[in-house]
Amino acid sequence: MPKSKNDINIAKIALKKYFGYDFFHPTQEKAIKSVLAGKDTFVLMPTGGGKSICYQIPAIILDGITIVVSPLIALMKDQVDGLNAYGIKANYLNSSLDSQEQSEIIENLLNGEIQILYVSAERLLSPDFTKILEKIKPNLFAIDEAHCISSWGHDFRPDYTRLSYLKKKFPKVPIIALTATADKVTRADILSQLELNKPKQLIDSFDRPNISLTVLPGQKRIEKIKDFLSDKMSQSGIIYCLTRKQTEKLAEKLKSFGLNAASYHAGLNSAERSRIQQSFVRDRTQIICATIAFGMGIDKSNVRWIIHYNIPKNIEGYYQEFGRAGRDNAPAQALLFYSFADVEMIKKFFLDNSQRSIQLGKLDRIKEYAEGVICRRKILLRYFDEEYKKKCNNCDICNKPFPSLDGTALTKMALITLKEISSQNKIDTMSLVNELMRRSDKVNFASWHFYLAQMKNLGLIKVNFSQNQALFITDKGEDLLEEKIKKVRLVTLNEFIKRQEKSSKSTKSYSKNKVKKDYYKNPLFDKLREVRATLAKESGIAAYMVFSDATLLEMANEKPKNKAEMINVSGVGEVKWERYGEEFVEAILSE
Ligand code: ADP
Ligand code: ZN
Do 273 and 385 belong together in one domain? Predict the structure, then answer.
């Protein structure tokens, strides 16, 4: 039996001691309480939400061994290096190790010298490993990237479907399943396929509050990128392009400006690809110009910015790609270039098959996001059915709101019309505009389209992509019709065009109104980064594993000068203090 069942205080002490953090995030605390009480647990958290702590803390404080199932074999070494840097006894077993290395690890496992073991599902379920499992004392099974179990998901792994073995064989050992991407169908699939026993389900907001969101017209992209990068000295970032050729051309261009850039795409051989990836993770290459092939297998927490050189195919992909920035929760930026020509070009990539109509619908929707005139964060989260109640103040629209007018009557007219004509037939945006034009000539065709896009962005109507883009009224839309919501503000097409023209001509990547607060413009931060780079090199690990950017930023602001002050910094645990602390104190004292 676990020695400290239910004891969240012991968990908090371990959090401070090993990871140097003072508090659990609310969902983490709930997940850990549930696991410590021996319950099966399902956790849906965004990237950077802190999923790994949910099983790492129980692994540290419970007797026995926590087994982590992960599909990302290439990441296991990094994850284990990261944990070892905290002084946690972790290891991994996969096909990249030779048989000598594997038997050593198995020996350590049997001797109880390992607290956390990462394995692939395939390995876990192999006959030789299941025998080992019976000899050791698993205290918890953590299923990472749990969406891989579902053929509905985007990353299906057949081996994951055999994981019900765990509950059958070890009914008393709790299972925690974690993912950052799971719609309702996938979620249900995870719970039933793992045969979880009355699981505690914890679902976090999808928001990534530390990532600022900006969309700019595609004109003068290169100048805008130069401007954007001018205050980013050596901050890591990725520029996503549509084609292989573009990645190469852009990387050449950036190099000609003296920037440290490389290109990455599926056309390179695998040795070349892993060299570039490694060089980026180790902070030797600052900028990667890549197709979307890049990023999936990277666990680098200090990616500070993501640029989309072209509009992505859909909002799902966009959210995942820019989400690779700021996993350490320190301020990060996402910049998207939008041009009509790109939208037309992407359409040519869609094959003429049954998926085409869905793809076109989703492309339309991201175009409406790019042409959005209300808070970008709200639009994105509503797309994922989350109503965001807080103030964002971290997107280009919030920084410079559009003048708006009372659009309540217009909106109600659109919703009522939709209700009337869609009672028999499902209708799409175009048919609705036609009907609205027939009923009234006060608003022109283009303006109706623009207003309807806003109603979608406001979450009053939604598109059903798998039903020929049919529109439907959301609960929030019904609330407006029932006058539970009293007013709707709308922005005119003219206002939008005016601003679009202005920023098309500009070469700036920020609007003038924005009070630009640069968290990273701090000479001490740069100095601490250098110390970190040297220490990382000496220990043979990536810089972000020594301390995250968030931790260095806090050090640069608080200037801790001794052990007690240093331990107060979020992210400085005991082992890291011992290994690295004094070098940073020295750097601060000699400032
Ligand atoms: P995920 O796997 O959900 O993407 P991680 O587990 O990598 O997220 O955590 C993201 C970042 O947040 C890491 O830098 C991690 O150390 C940090 N973090 C996690 N939990 C906490 C916490 N309770 N307080 C402060 N930082 C935390
Ligand atoms: Zn906003």
Answer: yes
